[in-house]
Amino acid sequence: MNPLSSSKPTPTPDAAADDLAAVRVDRARTELRHGRAILVTDADPTAPLLLAAAVETLGPERLAALTATTGQTPRLLLTAERLQALGWPAASTARSHALAAPAGIALLQALAAISAVPADPAALTDPRPASAAMEAALALAKRARLTPALLVAELPASARPALDAAQWLAVAAADVEQVRRHEHPRLQRVSDARVPIAAHEDCTLVLFRELDGDAEHVAIVVGRPDMAHPVPVRLHSSCLTGDLLGSLRCDCGDQLQRAIEHLAKDGGVLLYLAQEGRGTGLANKLRAYRLQDGGLDTIDADRHLGFRADERDFHAAVAMLQALGIDRIVLLTNNPHKIDAMRDAGIEVVDRLPLIAPVNPHNSRYIRTKRERAGHQLHVDDEQD
Length: 385
Hints:
This protein has 385 residues and is an alpha/beta fold. The protein has helices at 15-33, 60-70, 80-85, 105-111, 132-143, 160-165, 173-181, 240-244, 252-266, 276-279, 282-293, 298-304, 315-323, 336-344, 364-372, and strands at 38-41, 49-54, 75-78, 95-99, 124-129, 149-155, 169-172, 187-194, 203-210, 216-222, 231-237, 268-273, 328-332, 348-353.
């Protein structure tokens, strides 16, 4: 395989529409990250307009401006996972709530699990199911790697001219759904270079950048894989604490090193994916660590923050493999969901090789949780747990 070769995906008939939707979604994501509210519209022209702002990046001045602009007290929108953590086990979908007390930043951040201050669920009243626009706003917050909690205000469709005059950035809920459904993100092969590493001197790094976001992913081509046979491949989501600092709280760094050592034997590819914290981002990963120190396991900690057990997808990995001309692989993983994701996208997984890392007192509960609750195929000695 020539690691410097490249290929471009064949445009689809709807490529132009997909590109425009992705641009609008990326702009809305950026607005939320910068603490500005966005206007989310519904396909029904008579449906209420939704003004939404992320709690995590909202400051006192913009909170006051949001209230003044809408002429109403905004409601707090939370995911089903966060509501369950707050004491509503029957909450199966996202809901918006009125606030029983004045909505100061400290109260909002506690209810959203952004701060470590305990939250009083009695502060939430009048639960209402989330609309399609609200679900889209939550998806945008996750896409921005923000805690999925937003202040929202519904306004009549007649308010659109005034909102447009105020230059609120508008995005359609349908655009968010269209981008979510799109199986292959637009990636640009930006640069590549030969980088000798300790495990193998013949190693090439290929950088891919998402055109509709700020994520960058790296394909590490180790040696010269034989393309006539299934290529050994590792999908590795970034873990700053484990990969760089050697954290003992997880097995990520150990798995990374074992994968590279295996690929060095006969050649292969490691895809280093920008999906820190199972797709929640570094800030939320550290919040989850704090919750784990308080007694929650890794899955319940993420759910406490409002996330699902795993927010990752592997569409970028599929696009990278296709760009490298790889469609048959031996996957180095303990995670059966990665196998399913590859096969669903048309990548033939002919075999799986496990990556078993050492268990220590700091990661034993984490590894047990991955095995027992996330279905990872880990055959570790229970005595080590």
